[in-house]
């Protein structure tokens, strides 16, 4: 649920106008929703719904489907009826598909007005969105900048991306259409960061952040964490999508973790565990992994520390909601800063889980 996020006061968010999407405010100090995109054929609405329900389970808060032909655009209606999170239609060029998507009941459209074609078509699409209270996302991608911009700048640059975005924004302004969110994606982390920073000084529309074509799970997670996380830490960014060449639930997991690392969302268990070193006298790799797996489904915001020895263990454990500081084949258990005594190594995982359940219950009372 989008509204459950909590904004950390360490990050001073960029002031933007607020854009409503399916009744959810996007921008300024509002929570930062995590988005993903389906990888099925949209026209196969049953498989697409199945995939979205898995995304939802992973914590996805907004989902986008390509509306690349009429069958896909019509299928959005069925999809919308069977999911629980806002649905975005991804459209390139064809205004007819945008109109079908609006009729299908989508909550946002990703479209670049400058690519729709003649003025009448642009007006028609923007009017349909306005009449239905649907915002649009202008999605600039470094790999597909307008030809004349490319001729001018020679190769994709952050300035070229900003110029492209401003053109699309101007078209919206000409039509008095202000429900706009903008993205400036590039596979180059520096370029995308620079582009967002530059545009942040020139407009007050909320931003959808992403490093596009970021790669596979491993590389893409790192690139996205730097690009998206870097901007968020500067207060720039109002919704995010991590793009990975793998299952979308992985994108959602990474997105949520980026937000959690920056204190931009309080959701689920934050695990603090040490890297271990020669002082270690328990199997901390196993213990941390077992705790991580066992708490993956928990939505209550909790901090759990799993520490290898007395050097940093007691300090971190006392700061956490639940912590263990290991010794030789045993550990001291801490709950809310208080020592609960020594427990055997074999008891660590079950006892930590037991204490989590007790805390969760008390928080829900
Ligand atoms: Fe090593 Fe102890 Fe630090 Fe873990 S907490 S890395 S075991 S010194």
From TrEMBL:
Q: Is Plastid set as a keyword in this record? A: no
- Chain sites annotated for binding [4Fe-4S] cluster: 274, 277, 309, 316
The pathway that the record names for this protein is: Isoprenoid biosynthesis; isopentenyl diphosphate biosynthesis via DXP pathway; isopentenyl diphosphate from 1-deoxy-D-xylulose 5-phosphate: step 5/6
- Reactions catalysed: (2E)-4-hydroxy-3-methylbut-2-enyl diphosphate + oxidized [flavodoxin] + H2O + 2 H(+) = 2-C-methyl-D-erythritol 2,4-cyclic diphosphate + reduced [flavodoxin]
Note describing how the cofactor binds: Binds 1 [4Fe-4S] cluster.
Cofactor(s) for this UniProt protein: [4Fe-4S] cluster
**Where does the secretion signal sit in this chain?**
none
Q: Does the keyword Hydrolase apply?
A: no
Q: What SUPFAM superfamilies does the record point to?
A: Dihydropteroate synthetase-like, Nitrite and sulphite reductase 4Fe-4S domain-like
Record EC number: 1.17.7.3
One Pfam family per UniProt:
GcpE
Which Gene Ontology terms cover its molecular function?
Answer: 4 iron, 4 sulfur cluster binding; 4-hydroxy-3-methylbut-2-en-1-yl diphosphate synthase activity (ferredoxin); 4-hydroxy-3-methylbut-2-enyl-diphosphate synthase activity (flavodoxin); iron ion binding
Pinpoint the IspG C-terminal domain residues: 271-356
- EC class, as a word, reads oxidoreductase
Q: Which InterPro entries match?
A: Dihydropteroate_synth-like_sf (IPR011005), IspG_bac (IPR016425), IspG_bac-typ (IPR004588), IspG_C (IPR058579), IspG_TIM (IPR058578), NO2/SO3_Rdtase_4Fe4S_sf (IPR045854)
Task: State the UniProt keywords alphabetically.
Answer: 4Fe-4S, Iron, Iron-sulfur, Isoprene biosynthesis, Metal-binding, Oxidoreductase
Ranges of residues in domain IspG TIM-barrel? 16-255
- Function according to Swiss-Prot or TrEMBL: Converts 2C-methyl-D-erythritol 2,4-cyclodiphosphate (ME-2,4cPP) into 1-hydroxy-2-methyl-2-(E)-butenyl 4-diphosphate.
Q: What family is reported?
A: Belongs to the IspG family.
Q: Cite the PANTHER family for this sequence.
A: 4-HYDROXY-3-METHYLBUT-2-EN-1-YL DIPHOSPHATE SYNTHASE (PTHR30454), 4-HYDROXY-3-METHYLBUT-2-EN-1-YL DIPHOSPHATE SYNTHASE (FERREDOXIN), CHLOROPLASTIC (PTHR30454:SF0)
The record's HAMAP family line, in alphabetical order, gives: IspG (MF_00159)
What protein name is recorded for this chain?
4-hydroxy-3-methylbut-2-en-1-yl diphosphate synthase (flavodoxin)
Q: Where does this protein come from, organism-wise?
A: Turneriella parva (strain ATCC BAA-1111 / DSM 21527 / NCTC 11395 / H)
**Phylogenetic classification of the source organism:** Bacteria, Pseudomonadati, Spirochaetota, Spirochaetia, Leptospirales
